[in-house]
Structure formats: C-alpha cells, structure tokens
Amino acid sequence: MPSTGRPHTPETRERISKGVRRSLAVRAQQERLVPRLAVFRRRRGSNPMMRTLLDLAANEVVELVDALGGVDQISPQRLRLIEDIGISGVLLGRELLAYIDDRDGDAAARVTALINSRRSSLAQVGLDVRKADELDVSSYAAAIEETKP
Q1: What are phi and psi for residue 94, nearest 5 degrees?
Q2: What pTM was computed for the model?
Q3: Residue 126 φ then ψ, to 5°
Q4: Where are the domains of the chain?
C-alpha cells in the first residue's frame, strides 16, 4: 500500500541517518564498556521496563567512565567495579518498582542495601560525594569588578 504522506526531503533523510548512526555508535560504546549489561539486554530485552532500566544503567556506566577520564585511564578492575555499579542500578530500579507495587518491607530493606552498596562502590571508584566549590559574595563581586573596563 503506497504511503499517502510526502516523502522526506534530502535534508530530513540526512538528519535521520545522522541520528541513527549516533544511536548505533552509543549502543556500540555501551556494549563494549558493559558486556554483561549487553547480555542482560539480549536476554531480557522483550520487557519494556527492563529494557529501560538496562539502557539507563548502560548510560550511567558510560557517564562514570567519562567522569574518570575515559576507558584508557581506567584499570580493568575499576571498569569491572563501574560495571557492577550499573548492574546494581538495574537491580535497584527493579526493587523500587517492587516496593511501589507491594509496599513490601523486604523490598524496602533490599532497596536500602542496594543504595548503600552503590554508595560504597562509588567511593571505591573515586566518585564519592564532594561538596561543590563555594564562591563567597565578596570574591564574586571582586571578579565582576575586574572584568569591567
């Protein structure tokens, strides 16, 4: 059956193909960095919620690797720990959903354990919580004055 809409313009086709290429490149990077999550995605990919959790975890791993300076700056052991952080994120998401559905005390305990596990893993990797640099008002005003002609 022929399409009743207008065909895409060459510019639109180029924009679509760029987006598809970018998406495929991101997916390839995720699968290279997080092979265990790629296996989970293949096995559990039919469940839309699970697929979403796996994609979020893979994105988190890529962001953590970038925050630490890239793959070349990270040891294999540290990369494995970052991958474990991503997997614990998937498990945390599932347990949060279970808790929301059932209000189960056991699920609450599992959520707390997973949160604590992720926190300690992030500290081991070197991405523990740090206080942002604070700028006091007087130094801010002095910096503004310096930039005025």
Answers
A1: -65, -40
A2: 0.59
A3: 110, 15
A4: 18-127
